Amino acid sequence: MAFSGSDFAGTDLDAIHVLVSARSDLEKARRIVVKIGSRTLTSDLDLPSKLATQMAELRGAGPGKDGSQPKRGFVIVTSGAIALGGARLGYRQKPKEVALQQAAAAAGQSVLMRRYDEAFGALDITPAQVLLTHADLADRDRLNNARNALGALLDAGAVPIINENDTVATEEIRFGDNDQLAAMVVPLVSADLLVLLTDVDGVLDAHGKRIAVMADSTEIGTVTEARERVGSGGMSSKIDAARKASRSGAAVVIASASNPRVLCELLSGNDVGTLFPCLGPPLKARKHWIAFTLRPRGVLILDPGAVRAVRAGKSSLLSVGVVGVRGDFDVGDAVRLISTSEEEVARGLTRLSTAQVARSAGKKATKATPATEDPDVIVVHKDDLVLTS
C-alpha cells in the first residue's frame, strides 16, 4: 500500500492512521544511519555543516564526565571520494578504469574527510573515518570486529563516517554502491532508522507526486532520476536498499538533502520524504547477513513440495527436494533457492558442495538413517535459511 503526498482528501481513516503512526514512530529513533551520495555532496559544499548542525541538535548532550551518552547516535555513510579526487587529478568525468577510480579515491578521500572533520569539529563533535570493502562484511570475524569498533565509537560520542575503501576495492569486493553499504551498516550498528538523502523529494508516483509512505516497494510508478550520473546509485538502488534495511527492523526514509532541516523534521514526525516502515518481525543480524550481505555462489532449484516446505519456515532443505543445481560453490557458501519457475524463495548456507548436491539430488533418507542425521540429505539447514519472497 502506498500513500501519495500530505493531502488526505479522499483517504480512508485506516490509511491516515497508518501514515500518522508510522511517522510518529520516527521520533523514537535513537540510532540513525544517514547516507549521502556523490551527486548530492558535490552539488552542496555546505552539506557536511548542515548535517553536523542538525545532528548536534538532535543528539542532545553528552558524553559527559558522569558517563552520560547522547540520547541519539548518528552514523554517516558517504560517497564522494572519487568525485572529489577526480577533480583534483584533472579528470573531466568519472573514470571507468579501475586503476583511475582507485587513484581518484586516494586523492579525494582526504578532502572528503577534511570537510566532515571541519564541520563536526566546529561543534566539538569527533568524526571518525571508517573504510570498508564488501570482503570485510562477508567474513564473520571481520564483520564482528567492525561491529565492535563502530559500537565503541558511538559509545564515545563520535560520529563514524563510513565510505567504501575505493582505493583498494576491485569489482569482486565492491558493494555496488553506498546505498547497499548503508543497508548493510544498519544491522551492524543496530540502527532503527536509515535516511537516504538524494536530490529529489522522495519516491514519485506515475504522476510525479511524492509517495509519503510505501509499505510495498513493488508499487512504484515513475521514479525521477537524474540523467547525469556522478555517483553509482540511483532511485532503484535506494528502494532496494530500503527493502533490505527494513527487514532488519529499521524504518527507512528517502528524502531530499536540499531541505536544511530534513533530519530535524523527520525526527519530529513530519511528513518528509518517502517512508518505508519496518517489514514484519526483524531478521536477526546473522540471517540478515546471509540474505543481504553474502553474495550467492550458486543456485538450487526446488520441486513444488520443497518450495512449500521451505516457505513454511520449519524445515531444512533436503536433497529429495532438489531437482537442479547451478554454479560452483563449496560447503558454507551462500546459495539462492528458487522454484522451477525461477522465482527466488530463499537464501541460505549450503552444507554440501556443487558436486555433492548434484550427486545427492533426489536422494531420500533411509529408515536406518533419518534425514536429520544424514549429512548427504540435508542441503541447507533451517537455521541457515532465510525466506526472501
Protein architecture, described:
- With 389 residues, the chain is of the alpha/beta class.
- The chain has 13 helices and 16 strands.
- It has helices at 13-25, 38-43, 47-59, 81-88, 98-121, 134-138, 140-155, 178-188, 235-246, 262-266, 285-292, 304-312, 354-360; strands spanning 2-4, 31-36, 73-78, 127-132, 159-164, 193-198, 211-214, 251-256, 274-276, 298-302, 317-318, 322-327, 334-339, 344-349, 378-380, 385-387.
- The chain has a 7-stranded mixed sheet, sandwiched between helices.
- A hairpin with a 4-residue loop joins strand 13 and strand 14.
- The longest helix has 24 residues, at 98-121.
Furnish the topology, listing elements before pairings.
Layout: E1 2-4, H1 13-25, E2 31-36, H2 38-43, H3 47-59, E3 73-78, H4 81-88, H5 98-121, E4 127-132, H6 134-138, H7 140-155, E5 159-164, H8 178-188, E6 193-198, E7 211-214, H9 235-246, E8 251-256, H10 262-266, E9 274-276, H11 285-292, E10 298-302, H12 304-312, E11 317-318, E12 322-327, E13 334-339, E14 344-349, H13 354-360, E15 378-380, E16 385-387
Parallel strand pairs: 2-3, 2-6, 3-5, 4-5, 6-8, 10-13
Antiparallel strand pairs: 1-7, 8-9, 10-12, 11-15, 13-14, 14-16
In short:
By secondary structure, the chain is of the alpha/beta class.
Which key phrases capture this entry?
seven-stranded mixed β-sheet, single chain, five-stranded mixed β-sheet, 389 residues, disordered N terminus, alpha/beta, 35% helix
